[in-house]
UniProtKB/TrEMBL annotation:
Family to which the UniProt record says this protein belongs: Belongs to the LTA synthase family.
TM spans (from-to): 12-30, 35-56, 87-104, 124-141
Principal location: membrane
SUPFAM superfamilies: Alkaline phosphatase-like (SSF53649)
Compartments (UniProt record): Cell membrane
Pfam families the record matches: Sulfatase
Superkingdom in the source lineage: Bacteria
Pathway: Cell wall biogenesis; lipoteichoic acid biosynthesis
Domain Sulfatase N-terminal, first and last residues per copy: 206-498
Name recorded for this polypeptide: Sulfatase N-terminal domain-containing protein
C-alpha cells in the first residue's frame, strides 16, 4: 500500500511461497527449538518488509543488501529516520507480538512447544517446498530484465526481489578505458563545442567559492507565502547573477556526499552504493586537481565529522589540499548533528581571508548543513512566522529551515564583501539534492505543494535544484533556461577560469556555451534508465516501451519517440562506470 499504491493483494501473496520455503527448511533441519527458529525467521522477514517501508519513504526506492553500508550513518541521522515513520507501520510486527504473548503464557507456550515437535511428513515437506520454489521462480525469472527497480520488486514480490539481488550480483561488463574518449562522450551527448566559447578565461586568476546548499530545491527561489519572501538573500543573488532555473540533481544513495563527488569530477554516481563507498580509493581526475595544476590552493569546509559518509577517503580521492570538519568548527551553536550554518560561514570566512592573503588564489567548497532533513530546526533559529496552515507540517518545517539557511547565507555574503573576498571571486551556488520527496508527503503536504506550484507536485519538480553563478564585473542579471545538471558545473567553471579540459575526461558540458541540447541520466531517486532531456523527464518502466514521459516546466509537449535518448543515457552511464572503476588507486 505504501510502496506500490493501494491494497495490492497479488503482490502480498507473492511473499507467501518465500515464507513457506523458509518454514520448510526449519521443519526439515531443526530438531530442537523450532519455535525460536520460526520466531526468528518471522522477525527477519518482517524486519526486511519494515526496512523497505522506511527506506522507500525517504529515497523512493526498494532497499537492498547494498544499503547495509549505510548502517553506520543511521545513528547520525536518527531524527530523520524517526520522522519518516507512521505508527501504523508497526502493524507489520503484530503477528510477532501475538506469537510472543502466547509463548510467554505457560500453558499456551507448552502446547505450542509440544505441537512443534511433531514431525511433518517428509513427502509433504518436499511437495510444499517444490511447489513454493516453483512459484518463486515463476515470479522471478520472467521479470529479471525489468529496469525499474520498483516495478521489478512488485512483479517478483519483495522477499523474492531481495533474494534475487543477492544471488544475481554479477559484475558489470566494463568498457576498455582506451575506448572511452572525450570525443566519444561528446558525440553521444550531441555536443558541438564552439571555436571561440563565450566568457572563456573571463574570470582568470579569481578565487572560486562553491557553496552547496543542503536540500535546497528550485521552487524556493522567488517564493512568497502570503506575501512573505522565503529566501530573500538567494532571490537577490539570483536577480543580480546568472541564474539557471532548469537545473537538476545527479545524486544517489550518498546524497550530499554524492553531490560533492559529481560536482568535483563531472562523473555520474555508481550503479549501487554511495560514491564515497564505491570509489574511495580512486585517484579521481577532479576540480581540485585541475585548480592545483593552475596554481590554486584548495580546501573544503564541512561542519560534521570527516568520517561521516567516508569523506576522509573522498577528499583524498578528489585531491583537496586539506579539509575543515567538526574538529575545526566545534559544537558551538549546534543544529542537528553539527555546528550551525552561522558558525560554518563565520569561521569559513575568516579562514578564506587568510587564504586570500596568501600568494595563491584559492578554490573552496563550502557545505551547508542546518537545513537537513527532517528540518525541525530549534526555535532559536526561527527567522519567520509560518502561516497557520503550514504549522506542524513537513512542508512548513522545510520552508522554515530553508528560510534560516538563507538568513545564514546572507550573513556569509556580507562577510565576504566586507573582507574584500567577494569581488575577487567566482561564486557558484547550488542545491545538493531534493528536500521534499513525493513519497514522504502526506495529504496536507501535497495540498500545500499544489498551492505553491499551482499544479500537483511531480518528479521533475522534486529533482529540480537551482544554480547561481556570480562574478563581479563578469556576470549580469540573466536567467538561463537551458537544461543543466550538477555534472555540468566542472566544465562550466573551467571555461570561466580558462582551464582547458582536453586531457580530462568529463561527462558534463559547459552550459554557458553548449545550450541547445543536453542529456542527464538519472539513477537511484528515479528508476534506472530514467533521464532528463531538453523537454521531458522520462521514467523507465520494465524498459523503454512502458516508460512514462513527463514534460518539464515550460514544455508543452514531450517526445514520444525518445528511444535514442534512452539508449544514449544508458551508454553514458556505462562509460562513466567503466572509466571510474578502472582508474588507478591513490597512494
Amino acid at each position: 500500500m505504501v510502496v506500490f499504491g493501494g491494497p495490492n493483494w497479488t503482490t502480498l501473496l507473492k511473499e507467501v511461497p518465500f515464507a513457506l520455503i523458509v518454514f520448510c527448511l526449519i521443519e526439515w533441519f531443526a530438531t530442537k527449538r523450532k519455535l525460536v527458529y520460526y520466531l526468528s525467521a518471522n522477525l527477519l522477514m518482517t524486519g526486511i518488509l519494515f526496512a523497505v517501508l522506511m527506506y522507500y519513504k525517504y529515497y523512493g526506492v526498494i532497499v537492498t543488501y547494498s544499503a547495509l553500508n549505510q548502517v553506520n550513518q543511521v545513528t547520525a541521522v536518527s531524527n530523520s529516520v524517526f520522522s519518516l515513520m507512521d505508527p501504523y507501520y508497526l502493524l507489520v510486527f503484530i503477528d510477532i507480538v501475538v506469537m510472543g504473548y502466547y509463548l510467554i503464557r505457560r500453558r499456551k507456550g507448552q502446547y505450542w512447544k509440544a505441537a512443534s515437535q511433531k514431525r511433518v511428513s517428509r513427502s509433504v515437506l518436499a511437495t510444499l517446498f517444490g511447489v513454493s520454489l516453483a512459484l518463486c521462480l515463476f515470479n522471478i525469472l520472467p521479470n529479471r530484465a525489468s529496469m525499474n527497480e520498483i516495478v521489478k520488486a512488485e512483479q517478483m514480490g519483495i522477499l523474492n526481489y531481495e533474494a534475487y539481488t543477492i544471488l544475481s550480483n554479477k559484475k558489470q561488463e566494463l568498457v576498455n578505458p582506451s575506448e572511452i574518449t572525450q570525443a566519444k562522450i561528446d558525440d553521444i551527448k550531441r555536443i558541438q563545442k564552439p571555436a571561440s566559447p563565450k566568457l572563456w578565461n573571463a574570470a582568470s586568476g579569481k578565487n572560486l567559492i562553491i557553496i552547496q546548499m543542503e536540500s535546497f530545491q528550485n521552487f524556493l527561489i522567488h517564493l512568497k507565502i502570503d506575501g512573505q519572501e522565503i529566501t530573500p538573500n538567494m532571490n537577490k543573488l539570483a536577480n543580480e547573477s546568472y541564474y539557471f532555473n532548469n537545473f537538476y540533481q545527479g545524486v544517489g544513495q550518498g546524497n550530499t556526499s554524492d553531490a560533492e563527488f559529481v560536482v568535483n569530477t563531472s562523473y555520474y554516481i555508481p550503479p549501487n552504493g554511495a560514491a564515497t563507498q564505491v570509489y574511495p580509493k580512486k585517484e579521481l581526475p577532479s576540480l581540485p586537481r585541475l585548480m592545483q595544476q593552475h596554481g590554486y590552493d584548495t580546501a573544503t569546509f564541512h561542519t560534521n565529522v570527516v568520517e561521516f559518509w567516508n569523506r576522509s577517503e573522498l577528499y583524498k580521492a578528489l585531491g583537496f589540499n586539506r579539509y575543515y570538519d567538526k574538529e575545526f568548527f566545534g559544537d558551538e551553536d549546534s543544529v542537528f548533528f553539527a555546528a550551525s550554518d552561522e558558525v560554518l560561514y563565520a569561521k569559513t570566512a575568516a579562514e578564506l581571508e587568510k587564504m586570500d592573503q596568501g600568494d595563491k588564489p584559492f578554490y573552496a567548497q563550502v557545505i551547508s548543513m542546518s537545513s537537513h532533513h527532517p528540518f525541525t530546526i530549534p526555535e532559536r533559529k526561527y527567522k519567520m512566522e509560518l502561516p497557520k496552515r503550514y504549522e506542524n507540517t513537513f512542508v512548513g518545517d522545510y520552508i522554515r529551515a530553508q528560510n534560516y539557511a538563507d538568513y545564514a547565507l546572507g550573513l556569509f555574503i556580507d562577510d565576504l564583501k566586507q573582507r574584500g573576498i567577494w569581488d575577487n571571486s567566482v561564486i557558484v551556488l547550488y542545491g545538493d539534492h531534493l528536500g521534499l520527496p513525493i513519497y514522504s508527503l502526506d495529504r496536507d503536504d501535497k495540498e500545500l505543494m499544489k498551492e505553491i506550484y499551482g499544479h500537483d507536485y511531480g518528479s521533475a519538480d522534486m529533482i529540480n535544484i537551482p544554480l547561481i553563478i556570480s562574478a563581479s564585473g563578469i556576470t549580469e542579471p540573466k536567467v538561463y533556461s537551458q537544461l543543466g545538471g550538477q555534472v555540468d558545473i566542472l566544465p562550466t567553471v573551467a571555461n570561466l577560469l580558462g582551464f582547458p579540459l582536453d586531457d580530462q575526461i568529463h561527462f558534463g558540458q559547459d552550459i554557458l556555451n553548449n545550450t541547445s541540447v543536453n542529456l542527464l541520466p538519472q539513477r537511484y531517486y528515479l528508476p534506472t534508465g530514467s533521464f532528463v532531456s531538453s523537454d521531458e523527464l522520462f521514467l523507465s518502466g520494465s524498459g523503454y516501451e512502458d516508460g512514462t514521459h513527463l514534460p518539464l516546466s515550460g514544455a508543452s509537449t514531450v517526445s514520444l519517440d525518445s528511444a535514442d535518448e534512452f539508449n544514449r543515457a544508458l551508454e553514458l552511464l556505462k562509460l562513466s562506470d567503466s572509466y571510474v572503476s578502472q582508474l588507478p588507486n591513490w597512494k
